[in-house]
Design goal:
The protein is α/β, with parallel strands linked by helices. It folds into two domains: 83 residues, Arc Repressor Mutant, subunit A (Orthogonal Bundle), CATH 1.10.10.10; 163 residues, 3-Layer(aba) Sandwich (Rossmann fold). It is built from 15 helices and five strands. The longest helix has 19 residues. The chain is elongated. This is RpiR family transcriptional regulator. Keywords: DNA-binding, Transcription, Transcription regulation.
């Protein structure tokens, strides 16, 4: 575990400074390197007690590593731990099971926490850039795989209601390469990927970059392996480590992006939506309580 983990920034930072730390700081650093899956769930008090040091020492230790606070350090450690956990590991995480565990309360509380964290930290300039790309690109390709295909489909289907030229691709389908190869110049390729990051989406990210398309990556972790290929990325982090994933924040962002496109009042929007509604009516696609039998 230690050898593999040393490539990660949070662990690498501890290893790099280990020799310059105080004796108590070295105890903290060594404990975290050897026990990241335990440390990530600890408060400052719990970590200090586990290492036999004071809470003040923990705070100074985190500051020496360059983090703005213990919460910021835990988020970085959480991203590392999340990227390496298997399904059995996740099932054994605290709060996932056990007598007396209020799972409904836990799920709702964690989703609310994730939404609050995102709302407080969101960079509106990045969102504005994304909206501009969604509005101006000649064509948009939404790609997801496994659980993230749900988000890609939801975003793609929603975008078809406000503009033309939207394509939804399944990352596990090899024809996605054909679609990207034949896509118009300056198309926007949007890859939505969540932990644990299917390899096919990494390959498609590389392909989109090679084909000189604009690549937007929406993900849940700063360590997402598709981000290095992106022109623009939006990270929607969670404070807890999920069994499968946390859908609320990504869904919320998709809703916002679509609504923002509507609010820009593109003159093509009304024509596009009227055309859609006419086709729905002519082909009896949607239930209409006012239509005679």
């Amino acid at each position: 575990m230690m050898n593999d983990s040393q490539a990660h920034p949070v662990i690498k930072g501890i290893v790099k400074q280990l020799d310059s730390l105080t004796p108590k700081g070295k105890i903290l650093g060594s404990y975290i390197i050897q026990n990241p899956r335990k440390a990530v769930f600890m408060t400052t008090k719990e970590l200090s007690e586990a290492c036999g040091v004071s809470e003040a020492t923990v705070v100074r230790f985190v500051g020496q590593l360059g983090y703005g606070g213990y919460g910021e350090f835990l988020q970085a450690l959480r991203d590392f731990v999340d990227s390496g956990l298997s399904l059995p590991d996740r099932v054994d995480l605290p709060g996932m099971k056990g007598p007396g565990t209020d799972l409904l309360h836990r799920v709702v509380f964690e989703e609310m926490n994730n939404l609050r964290q995102f709302y407080e930290a969101i960079d509106m300039d990045v969102l504005a850039q994304i909206v501009a790309q969604l509005q101006e690109s000649p064509a948009i390709y939404l790609i997801g795989s496994r659980v993230s295909y749900t988000f890609a489909y939801y975003m793609g289907w929603s975008l078809t209601k406000v503009r033309r030229g939207v394509h939804i691709l399944k990352g596990s389908d090899s024809t996605a390469i054909d679609w990207l190869t034949n896509a118009p110049d300056n198309s926007l390729v949007t890859i939505i990927t969540t932990s644990r990051y299917p390899n096919e989406l990494i390959k498609l990210g590389k392909a989109a970059r090679r084909l000189q398309h604009n690549l937007l990556v929406i993900t849940d972790n700063r360590l997402c392996p598709v981000i290095p290929f992106a022109h623009l990325s939006l990270v929607v982090p969670s404070r807890s480590i999920p069994l499968i994933g946390y859908p609320s924040t990504i869904s919320c962002i998709i809703n916002y992006l679509v609504l923002e496109l509507v609010n820009r009042q593109d003159p093509r929007l009304n024509e596009h939506q009227e055309r859609l509604e006419q086709m729905y009516l002519e082909n009896d696609i949607l239930f209409n309580m006012y239509t005679d039998d």
